[in-house]
Amino acid sequence: MKKSQIFKFTIVVSTLLLFGCNNSDEQPNILLQDCLTTNLQTGVVAFYPFNNGSINDESGNNNHLSNTTSASATDDRNGNPTCAFQFNSSNNEFLTFINPVFLNDLQNGSFSISLWYLSEIQGAGLLSRGNDLGNCAGGRGEWNVSLWDNNWIYFHINGYRIIGITPNPAVLQLNEWHHLVVTSDNNDLKVYQDGVLIADLESVSCGSGPTPSLNVGDLFIGEFLTGKLDDIILYNRLLTQNDITELYNLSPCCN
User: Which UniProt keywords apply (predicted)?
Assistant: First the structure.
């Protein structure tokens, strides 16, 4: 092969490698930076914005979900197509991560979850680590976030639970998008809806009952929900009120 041909071949291969690396390695970090401000990127364990129907983790940690059901991409809260996910509990639809070791021991320290939800029915599951019955009434797995029949927000973790009553509990708030944040710090539990603290409960045990095994069980998203979820973020730190206000005011992550 002539020197000129070798030179051209080297340029082509280098270009392909460059673009290939950008698509596989750089894109998640680029999307995280596009969607979250610098302070909101701190402590992110997994980030699921469902951008263009993707169920990948865009935190850069590669904690990608799988979909073995008929759950599908749908419009987000701003009407952007394929930038949220739709679930139907009658069809047993959900997303999952098998054996999520990246969640191990989070329940023993500071832990926060931020998400957007729209429920079409009374009583719905949102996400959980495991789905076996826990020692809290209504609890599943190691921890779970769900809506009770009157659409009160339920958060159970580590043998403790908290129920967040919306500012107007008489309104079922069906078919409406709402922002939800739950935090846990050594069983000091808080629930925020639409940027407002609606429940704060410190170290109140659920009482007797089966104790779920720790650090086991798959991650389930949307199981028992008929409705939509979007912009799910798992943190290994406590979110502050300023963080939560900022998250509530962010536009949907949709490129």
Answer: Disulfide bond, Signal
| Close Cβ partners of 114 (under 8 Å, ≥ 6 residues apart) | 179, 180, 181, 231, 232, 233, 235, 239, 244, 247
67, two tokens: 């979909």
pLDDT in tens, 208-245: 655 667 788 999 999 999 999 999 999 999 999 999 99
- Residues of the chain by 3-state class (helix, strand, coil), percent to 5: 25, 35, 45
Annotate 158-216 with DSSP letters as a single string: TTEEEEE--SSTT---TT-EEEEEEEEETTEEEEEETTEEEEEEES-B--SSPPPPTT-
> Residue 22: which region, alpha, beta or left (left: phi > 0; alpha: psi -120 to 50)?
alpha
Instruction: Assign 106 to helix, strand or coil.
Output: helix
Edge-first strand listing for the sheet containing 153-157: 95-97, 219-221, 124-129, 143-147, 153-157, 160-164
With a cut of 50, list the residues of the chain below it in pLDDT. Answer: 2-3, 5-28
Question: Which residues are bridge partners to 182 per DSSP?
Answer: 113, 191
Cα angle 105, 108, 114 (rounded to 5 degrees) comes to 85
> Which tokens sit at 152?
């009160």
What confidence tens digit (pLDDT) does each residue in 29-38 have?
557 888 999 9
What is the rounded distance in angstroms from the CA atom of residue 64 to the CA atom of residue 49? 12
Q: Say whether 95 sits in a helix, a strand or coil.
A: strand
Q: How many CA atoms lie within 13 A of 253 on its CB side?
A: 30
